[in-house]
């Protein structure tokens, strides 16, 4: 464990207190301010009697969406595409609703209207029955588009992994390489992320951070559940908390982008969250200071992503105003409420202590199909 001053002590106290209150199995954490490490360490055990350690590898989930957004902008800077290119330009043979109207910008910013395969019984039931089974991109797209689009392209916002599976194919067409190679060459190598790599199988490099969940009922290990459903092949990424902190600061500061491109990354969609009934409490989580950019969430000054799957929740967040980075990976225990990203709670409590003028709002969520 590494700590620096009162802020470092605060980080350790918050991590341990929230972890105990939520019965977490383990937590990895790294908080930096500029080049200074405020606190870095681990809480709990990854296996019984095996302490967690910051060198452990895990999947970063939708943190990779920020990589994909930055990758798209870099390809645009190179003159290979524009954000307003229709999907049909790059994927002329793909069968999608309104392919001449849905643009690359709409895919990366979730304004296409395409429904998510997450939450669809066509995905949820087979996944619950066998979480080790692989999924192809076409299967995921087919499930997502098994119901009609929620709204005309570009007129509203709704979170959908489906967009990123399609975007992955478009990025390959634009860049002329597999998505994993593009991310490696354009993101991982320039940022010197030595412990970060695309995962093309359910394997996770050693040493492994083991994950657990009760989402299927019994408390069970989820570490090697098949991850092919997370996003497009090549966009499923394994990393460490140190590398995740480095990339959070780099993506959040626009280190790899021209200023004009970075401005696009953190600009909200010119739409609102899809209208919902007044009784929908989830809808009220869309705050005026929280919005989705190009693969990243922006909330009260923070630029972040918050993955959650198989009982493992993460935060990769950067606050430009203070050059402050928070990276967390929190693993559920037997008593953790299923479907809860406790890393989000840790981060919000840290912000209340360290940056009281920049406390992030509730997560950006999509309340599901229209009613």
How many beta-strand runs? 15
Q: How many domains, in number, for the residues?
A: 1
Our Rg estimate from Cα atoms comes to 19 Å
What is the CATH class? Alpha Beta
User: For the terminal residues, how far apart are their CA atoms?
Assistant: 49 Å
- Sheet with most strands: 10 strands, antiparallel
What is the CATH third-level topology name? Beta-lactamase
Please state the structural category. Answer: alpha+beta
CATH architecture descriptor text: 3-Layer(aba) Sandwich
- Continuous helix count: 11
Overview of the molecule:
- This protein is of the alpha+beta class and 371 residues long.
- It has a single domain, classed as Beta-lactamase (3-Layer(aba) Sandwich).
- Helix content is 32%, strand content 17%.
- The chain is built from 11 helices and 15 strands.
- The chain has helices at residues 5-21, 63-77, 87-90, 104-109, 121-129, 137-144, 161-175, 179-188, 241-253, 259-265, 342-354; strands at residues 2-3, 26-33, 36-47, 50-51, 58-59, 197-198, 212-213, 220-221, 237-239, 290-292, 297-299, 302-305, 308-309, 312-319, 324-331.
- The strands form 3 sheets. Strands 1, 2, 3, 4, 10, 11, 12, 13, 14 and 15 form a 10-stranded antiparallel sheet that branches. The chain has a 3-stranded antiparallel sheet with strand order 5-9-6. The protein has a two-stranded antiparallel ribbon with strand order 7-8.
- Strand 11 (297-299) and strand 12 form a beta hairpin.
- Helix 2 (63-77) packs across helix 8.
- The longest helix is centred in the N-terminal third of the chain and has 17 residues, at 5-21.
- The radius of gyration is 19 Å and the shape is globular.
- The N and C termini lie far apart (49 Å).
- The model is unreliable at 275-286 and 367-371 (pLDDT under 50).
């Amino acid at each position: 464990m590494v700590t620096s001053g009162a802020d470092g002590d605060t980080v350790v106290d918050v991590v341990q207190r929230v972890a105990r209150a939520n019965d977490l199995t383990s937590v990895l954490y790294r908080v930096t301010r500029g080049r200074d490490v405020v606190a870095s360490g681990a809480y709990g055990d990854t296996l019984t009697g095996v302490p967690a350690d910051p060198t452990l590898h895990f999947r970063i989930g939708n943190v990779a969406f920020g990589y994909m957004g930055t990758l798209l902008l870099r390809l645009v800077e190179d003159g290979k595409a524009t954000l307003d290119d229709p999907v049909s330009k790059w994927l002329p043979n793909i069968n999608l609703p309104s392919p001449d109207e849905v643009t690359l910008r709409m895919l990366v910013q979730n304004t296409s209207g395409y429904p998510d395969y997450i939450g669809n019984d066509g995905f949820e039931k087979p996944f619950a029955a066998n979480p080790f089974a692989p999924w192809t991109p076409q299967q995921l797209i087919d499930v997502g588009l098994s119901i009609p689009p929620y709204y005309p392209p570009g007129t509203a916002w709704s979170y959908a992994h489906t967009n990123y599976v399609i975007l992955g194919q478009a990025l390959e067409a634009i860049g002329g390489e597999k998505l994993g190679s593009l991310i490696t060459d354009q993101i991982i190598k320039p940022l010197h992320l030595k412990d970060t790599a695309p995962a093309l199988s359910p394997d996770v490099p050693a040493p492994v951070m083991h994950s657990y969940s009760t989402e299927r009922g019994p408390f069970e290990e989820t570490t090697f559940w098949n991850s092919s459903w997370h996003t497009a092949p090549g966009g499923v990424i394994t990393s460490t908390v140190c590398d995740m902190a480095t990339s959070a600061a780099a993506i959040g500061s626009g280190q790899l982008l021209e200023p004009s491109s970075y401005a696009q990354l953190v600009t909200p969609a010119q739409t609102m969250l899809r209208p919902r009934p007044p009784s929908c409490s989830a809808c009220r989580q869309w705050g005026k200071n929280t919005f989705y950019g190009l693969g990243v969430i922006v909330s009260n000054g923070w630029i972040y992503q918050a993955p959650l799957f198989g009982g493992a929740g993460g935060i990769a967040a950067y606050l430009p105003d203070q050059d402050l980075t928070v990276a967390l990976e929190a693993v559920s225990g037997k008593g953790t409420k299923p479907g809860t990203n406790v890393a989000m709670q840790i981060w919000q409590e840290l912000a209340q202590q360290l940056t009281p003028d920049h406390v992030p709002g509730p997560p950006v969520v999509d309340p599901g199909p229209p009613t």
